Amino acid sequence: MNSSSIKHILVVEDERHLAVGIKYNLEAEGHRVTTLGDGSSALALIADDPTTFDLVVLDLMLPGVSGYTVCETLLSKGWDRPILILSARTLAEDRKRGFDVGANQYLTKPFDLDELLSRVRNLLSHYRPRQAPESPIETFEFGTARINFRTFEVVVAGAAVRMTRLEMKLLRYFVQHEGDVIPRHELLRNVWGITGNVHTRAPDQFIRRLRKTFETDPANPRHFLTIRDAGYRFVASLGGADADANAE
Question: Which among 179, 151, 176 has a CA at the least distance from the CA of 163?
């Protein structure tokens, strides 16, 4: 395996036998794996070097600091790597809270090993670290649209379109991270300036507006995609649309 494709995964699980089993199978997939049994140690290790891990597999019911708190803390510090929650909690409100505090996927115990490995592969293949653009994007074209972010001029299929400042800010963020899967909590943090456990569907509403403005068929989007259980993805070229995308 190419060394550049080896990912470092942190498994935070206090059931030792389960942690050992997950570590063994992830290493068999070619990854480097570190295991810890409590949330405080996980936060301290990540704080030492926030870029060392590509994925966190996280139990919720941990001694001391819960998995929910680990997620909230990482989110508040700008963490942008995926988090996969493992939990015996099966209620809808538990899953909802997990996603609200920053998890990307939620897998209930007992789980099928093949499903765990599949979800890990999915998260690692879609996510990559955010890199700030070398210079601000002032103009951009995709589909039938021409956008000037400096003057707020937007033309779609030859017709001028009016957009609000927040809509333009969201659009610019998608353009800057074209091709990346962006979780809802990242949009809230970097576009709306909202952090923490906040319940809002604002990103969904604004993305529907972008689809209505820029998509030929908003019900079947080709540019502003929803990636199931992960977030959103902007694709400028129609040839790059992801098969996992599903419109809301």
Answer: 151
Q: pLDDT by residue (tens digit) across 85-114?
A: 998 888 888 888 887 777 878 888 888 899
Amino acid at 26: L
Q: Is 26 in a helix, a strand, or coil?
A: helix
Q: What is the CATH number of domain 165-240?
A: 1.10.10.10
Sign of CA dihedral 55, 61, 65, 69: positive
> Does pTM top 0.70 for this prediction?
no
With beta carbons less than 8 A apart as the criterion, state whether 16 and 42 touch.
Answer: no
Break the chain into its structural domains and give their ranges. 3-126, 165-240
Beta-ladder partners of 83: 56
* Residue 207: half-sphere exposure toward Cβ, Cα within 13 Å: 27
Contact 202, 147 (CB under 8 A): no
Digit-coded pLDDT (tens) for 132-150: 555 578 899 999 999 999 8
Q: For CA atoms 206, 195, 41, 52, give the dihedral sign.
A: positive
Which residue's entry shows tokens 């480097």? Answer: 32
* 87, burial (CB in 10 Å: exposed 0-12, middle 13-18, buried 19+): buried
Report the Cα 180 to chain-centroid distance in Å: 9
Cα–Cα distance measured from residue 234 to residue 165, given in angstroms and rounded to the nearest whole number: 19
Q: Which CATH class is domain 3-126?
A: alpha beta
